[in-house]
Amino acid sequence: MKSKTVFKETKHFVKMELHGWSIWEIIGLIFVFCIIGTNAVLFNDSYPAVISACCGILYTFIAGKGKISCYFFGLLGSGFYVYLSFKNALYGNMLLYAGYYIPMQIIGIIKWSEHLKWKTQEIYKTSLGFEETLNLSIAALMASAGAIFILKLLHDPSPVIDGITTVLSLIGMYLTVRRCIEQWGVWIIVNALSIIMWLKVALHGQKVYSTIVMWTVYFILGIYFYIKWHRELEEESQKK
């Protein structure tokens, strides 16, 4: 009897998580995974890079849909990304994911579960005020300068990009947990810089092509979901 109840609850959860997906979004995901799969075969990409890319893309896409299940893929992908960063001496990214990103995703599961719409099981989306946006911007500039200095002392091969992406990712994850639309602006910058960082790694002979594809898709999704969230917030404000 208990197993039947668990099965029904699981079935309902999966059904609600898949609610609201358009056919074009599904086709887009399949297309991206085909690119990653083809790329992995042609260039003999590493398994951790492929798994991290697939999980990361699913996390970003499902997070954009406002579904709590994004964090399950986020946790798995983050684990593999920690390994990749360590292997390629990107210590800022490694420490970011292991010491902050993974714990914050666990917190995200708890926080998002407290702010779900009953009918669709999507999160309620929010936005920051001007003062808080200004304070975060100043903090980002100061922290980025400090991170770059520390990473130079650690002989990081890409201290500027690694430092900035590390700091902005801290802020981006914080905004994600808070369900703020401003997260997408932060992620767009992080993703653009990360593409450059991993291209440099690839040019040095490392097989991380799936990771480059992953960050490129992140960049596109960041723009897509910023527009989508902005429209939703505008529609909600008009109803009030």
Overview of the molecule:
The chain has 240 residues and is mainly α. It has helices at 2-17, 23-43, 47-64, 70-87, 91-113, 130-153, 159-177, 182-203, 209-239. The chain is globular, with a radius of gyration of 18 Å. The model has no long low-confidence stretch (mean pLDDT 84).
Provide the fold topology:
Blueprint: H1 2-17, H2 23-43, H3 47-64, H4 70-87, H5 91-113, H6 130-153, H7 159-177, H8 182-203, H9 209-239
Brief summary of the model shown:
By secondary structure, the protein is mainly alpha-helical. The protein is built from 9 helices and no strands.
Structural class computed from helices and strand pairing: mainly alpha
- What can be said about the biggest beta sheet? none
Which spans have pLDDT < 50 for at least 5 consecutive residues?
A: none
Radius of gyration: 18 Å
- Which of globular, elongated, flat, extended, rod-shaped describes the shape? globular
N-to-C order of helices and strands: HHHHHHHHH
Record field, number of beta strands: 0
Q: Work out the helicity level.
A: over 70%
The chain-level mean pLDDT equals 84
Provide the β-strand percentage band: under 5%
